Amino acid sequence: MRIKNLTLTNFRNYEKETFAFDGGLNVLFGKNAQGKTNCAEAVFFLCTGTSLRIKRDAQLIRRGAEEARLSALAESRYGELSLEAVITERGKQLFVNGSKVAKTVDWIGNVNSVFFSPGELRLIQDGPDERRRFLDISISQTSKTYYTALLRYRKILEQRNVLLKERDVSVVLETLPVWDEQLCRYGAIIGKARKEYVDRLAPHAREAHAFLTDGEEELFVGAERKYEGSEEEIAASLYREMQERYERDMRLGFTTIGPHRDDLDILIGGMDAKQFASQGQTRTAALSIKLAEVEIFKELSGEPPVLILDDVMSELDLPRRKKLVRKVEGLQTILTCTHAERVLYGKECRKIQIRGGRIV
Ligand SMILES: Nc1ncnc2c1ncn2[C@@H]1O[C@H](COP(=O)(O)OP(=O)(O)O)[C@@H](O)[C@H]1O
Ligand SMILES: [Mg+2]
């Protein structure tokens, strides 16, 4: 998959600009605060319908403008695809080949994308919600079933949590089983899919890590072990566990078990990365997981995703930078940095200089 060109209108600090991307390595370079990350973000937004940096889509609209517009011509093995997103204060509208897409779920998967930036270190350093978010965004890109289950799960969970705060205990006890039956059904889909995804991811992550570190340390990634068995079995055991926690959940006023509380194990050299990894180890592990994500997209969709590397080169030492450039060969990569010549080592690429929201 690749993006051939991208036009941004009133998006972040871009008034109007068109990027023509190469199928291989594209280097966006320029000083700080010129719009490199904004362009990377736009590519990711067109691929996934979401951005990792925002709470509200409207933040993407250029200050003072009414609406932002992103349009791109993409190519996959099924042919060319025109993608367009229009963002207003009221929300976003998405169009594929000119037809409006009713739900984001029907948009996802047109072009898969993997995004890596220094912020992704949170994947390892921060709490479990960062790791769940990684799984959710990644799995959703190749599974509409997952994405839909996730939306339903969140909605029911919200209602369940409201119910838990209800004073009349008999009402709560009467209604909980009704919610829980559904909650556990969607929870099982989510838990099982995450487990399968992580089982698939782990060997690729280990391999990428061995490549980047010359096999000095081993990276282990593992999912929650409780999601073994069929969806029905998982749902049933989740239901039992929920029932056991009725009292506690009611006392606390929220749901204390389920996929929204799960975590991912990440170990480097047998040690919990979150607690023990150095900055450098964390960076390499996070990058390895992202490179593993690339491999999974290749496996699941039969095509490489678009890889976005925002500002990561300056944080890697020279040998790792060189290895990374080698590793991404054959992928369409959008890479941002301040000094193009420092990262390329004579590799062929398209260089695009950015200044003040314009291509120089
Ligand atoms: N909605 C917006 N409207 C106008 N300018 C914006 C908006 N959002 C961000 N910017 C501007 O974009 C610039 C940052 O761009 P960014 O792509 O993050 O820089 P860099 O080139 O360092 O990656 C800042 O000057 C910021 O003020
Ligand atoms: Mg930046």
Topology as H/E string?
Answer: EEEHEEEEEHHHHEHHEEHHEHEHEE
What is the CATH level 1 assignment of the domain at 1-112 and 305-360?
Alpha Beta
Query: What small ligands are held by the chains?
Result: adenosine-5'-diphosphate, magnesium ion
From the 3D structure, determine the CATH topology of the domain at 1-112 and 305-360. Answer: Rossmann fold
Low-confidence stretches: none
Number of strands: 15
Helical percentage: 40-55%
How are the strands of the biggest sheet laid out side by side? Answer: 2-1-4-5-6-7
Distance between the termini: 27 Å
Rounded Rg: 22 Å
**What is the CATH architecture assignment of the domain at 1-112 and 305-360?**
3-Layer(aba) Sandwich
Given the C-alpha coordinates, what overall shape results? globular
Task: Describe the model.
The two termini are 27 Å apart. This protein has 11 helices and 15 strands. The protein is globular, with a radius of gyration of 22 Å. The model has no long low-confidence stretch (mean pLDDT 93). It has a domain at 1-112 and 305-360: 3-Layer(aba) Sandwich (Rossmann fold). Helix 5 packs across helix 9. The chain has 360 residues and is α/β, with parallel strands linked by helices. It has helices spanning 36-48, 122-125, 128-142, 144-164, 169-213, 231-244, 246-252, 273-276, 279-301, 318-327, 340-344, and strands spanning 2-11, 14-20, 25-29, 68-76, 79-88, 91-96, 99-101, 113-116, 219-222, 265-268, 271-272, 306-310, 333-337, 350-355, 358-359. Residues 36-37, 311, 336 line the site of magnesium ion.
